[in-house]
Design brief:
about 190 residues; mainly beta; ten-stranded antiparallel sheet; 1 helix; about 10% helix; globular
């Protein structure tokens, strides 16, 4: 019996060692093409494909109003033309989700992240989510039906391990976005 308890205890401890550091987190993924004015460490990156992955913790939910909630950003990675850069300070960022039940923006899904200090944001709006998601109970989904009329921001600045990054996208071109489970995406 003691041997069985030791094996169970060792299994329990080892299960923590192999659990991904980001288990339970969700990620907001944006993909698009950098517009004029975008730069990395002062060098133009106009026309470069980008992906922004914002990991957030669904357990940190702060409801704002019906169909809207804020979440704590845990990490941000930006990939430009196949090269990944890590945002070095995420403390000024917040994650916001708006779902179609929000009375201020009815019928709109808006997964976005913002930067408190300079009031910039990055978050196109969409008319569909498959499957639908609740701002206060987010689940993996793909948003579509880009809605330029209700977009919340097309500009973000980051401090990265390669220097300052300014990223813009065209409101009218939009970017694709999805919410995914982080463990399936992390190395």
């Amino acid at each position: 019996m003691r041997q069985l308890l030791r094996v169970a205890a060792m299994t329990f401890v080892l299960s923590f060692a192999v659990t991904p550091a980001h288990a339970g987190l969700l990620a907001l993924d944006f993909q698009g093409i950098a517009d004029p004015g975008s730069s990395l460490n002062g060098a133009s990156i106009d026309g470069t494909d980008f992906t922004v992955q914002v990991d957030f913790n669904p357990a940190t939910q702060v409801p704002v109003e019906q169909g809207a909630a804020f979440y704590t950003v845990m990490s941000i990675d930006v990939t430009l033309g196949g090269v990944s850069y890590t945002v070095t300070n995420v403390s000024d960022f917040y994650m916001a989700l708006i779902d179609a039940t929000n009375p201020t923006y009815p019928g709109i899904y808006d997964p976005t992240f913002g930067i408190s200090s300079n009031a910039s944001g990055f978050g196109p709006s969409y008319t569909m989510a498959t499957p639908t998601f609740s701002a206060t109970d987010p689940t993996p989904t793909v948003v579509s039906g880009y809605s330029a009329a209700d977009s919340f921001g097309n500009y973000a600045t980051f401090s990265t391990n390669a220097g300052p990054l300014v990223l813009l996208y065209n409101y009218y071109g939009g970017v694709s976005a999805s919410i995914v489970s982080v463990p399936s995406r992390r190395r």
